[in-house]
Design brief:
- This protein is of the alpha+beta class.
- Helix content is 25%, strand content 24%.
- The chain is built from 6 helices and 9 strands, in the order βββαβαβααβββαβα.
- β6 and β7 form a beta hairpin.
Amino acid sequence: MSFSFFKTTGRQSLEHSSSAVGWVLKVRGQSLPLFIKELASLFPKENILELDGSSIAPDILEYLKQFPVLDWQERTEYSIFRRPWKKTERIPAAFRIPLEPEIMRRLAQFYENHAQPEVLDHLYVLDTSGKELYLDGFGLCGGSGKAYVSNKVPESTLKEFCEKTRCSYRPITPSSQMKEAG
């Protein structure tokens, strides 16, 4: 399975010839901390989380500094960093974090004292090489509330995760794929 961009919008799509090429998760705003807290249960522990934000609160930045900081040039092709930045724009801070339950719990706790943009803007789950994308949470935080999940995640695992986090999901099929771009 591979990921590609929708040429007209720059959004990504899951590409595969099976009937379900992936999943769309819909997360309500108040469920986002729970979603992040439980994220490690959805993927194998060797995967990594990349997150970025342009308005991350100082105490959260201090916590995140223990993890590798990514320069915009280090980000892979799916990233928002693959566009030129205007001199007036604030380039987001980006971090690569182990997808471990304790770390996810700590990130979720930050929502108790901070607004969503002060915690993160975007998140992605990748394999350890950073080349295969398992979750694209570009629209998750403050956007559409949607995250796209690879079809490598079994539906039974996804269903259990959604029951714990109060989110919903549906399959992406080849025929519905272009609707996602619109």
